[in-house]
Write a structure and sequence with these properties.
This protein has 258 residues and is α/β, with parallel strands linked by helices. Helices cover 34% and strands 28% of the residues. The protein has helices at 33-42, 55-58, 64-70, 87-96, 105-109, 112-121, 155-164, 186-193, 209-217, 228-231, 237-246; strands spanning 6-14, 17-22, 25-31, 48-52, 78-81, 100-103, 126-136, 139-144, 149-154, 169-174, 200-203, 223-226. It has an 8-stranded parallel beta barrel, surrounded by 6 helices.
């Protein structure tokens, strides 16, 4: 387990809107992503993840303006993903204010891109998003195109490969659990985080602080990504942080931000 677990709101974006779905489908508009990001920052988010969920379909990430607006008021690392498929795309996002970029579809289609970006910009800014769907006991398949396309690639083998290609971090999403509020896929998170040395962000299924405590205690996850719980006001980052500290989970103490 990491010495300092990070609490990271994940904001999925379609066009100008913050959206949320279940199993990456049935997307529902929530509101203005900047307003939510500011709230989460004020509430103590350690980082923020922005995902353009339709970018791969259109071949371009459209989050530049949203990120530029966000960084005027928010001073924690921002990761941007969706439709990033070249070093030029990475440069564009870093210039807009992102600190890290997230790859999924482009990395699967061209694994050497991971190494290329890492060499040019540093491995610390390369987050590989693994969207995994269970296909058998303790076996998960990697999906791309925001969960729409099967690859036949084993998630654990892919995690090991991206580590060898100098990725800096893994954002691990369970498609089966995503948006359900039924708890994380604890087996998936444990399997991946225990077999690679990269930091792993657990994503998909959280409904309460209990789920966060459980996934941290039962795996080597370094962070939790949260969306539904926060967007719908089920809990807050402050409350989750308090509960983690009360359960002896190592997290950053909350500092009020002006």
């Amino acid at each position: 387990m990491s010495s300092n677990i990070r609490i990271i709101p994940r904001l999925d974006i379609k066009g100008p809107n913050l959206i949320k779905g279940v199993h990456l489908e049935g997307l529902r508009k929530i509101g203005d992503p900047n307003k939510f990001a500011k709230k989460y920052y004020a509430d103590g988010a350690d980082e923020i993840i922005y995902m353009d969920v339709v970018a791969s379909l259109y071949g371009r990430n459209n989050l530049e303006d949203i990120v530029k607006s966000t960084v005027k008021d928010i001073y924690v690392p921002i990761t941007v993903g969706g439709g990033i498929s070249s070093c030029n795309d990475v440069r564009r996002m870093l210039r807009s204010g992102a600190e890290k970029i997230s790859l999924n579809t482009a990395a699967v289609k061209n694994p050497e891109l991971i190494n290329e970006i890492s060499k040019k910009f540093g491995s610390q800014c390369v987050v590989i998003s693994i969207e995994a769907k269970k296909v058998a006991p303790f076996k998960w398949e990697v999906l791309i195109e925001n969960g729409r396309e099967k690859t036949g690639i084993d998630a654990l083998e892919w995690a090991k490969k991206i580590e060898s290609l100098n990725a800096g971090e893994i954002l691990l999403t369970s498609i089966d659990k995503e948006g359900t509020g039924n708890g994380f896929d604890y087996d998936l998170v444990k399997e991946i985080s225990s077999n690679v040395s990269l930091p792993v962000i657990a994503c998909g299924g959280m409904n309460s602080s209990y789920d966060a405590i459980k996934v941290i205690n039962e795996s080597s996850a370094d962070a939790i990504a949260i969306s539904r719980v926060l967007h719908y006001g089920i809990s807050t980052i402050k409350d989750i942080r308090h509960d983690l500290i009360s359960s002896n989970v190592n997290v950053r103490e909350f500092d009020e931000k002006n």
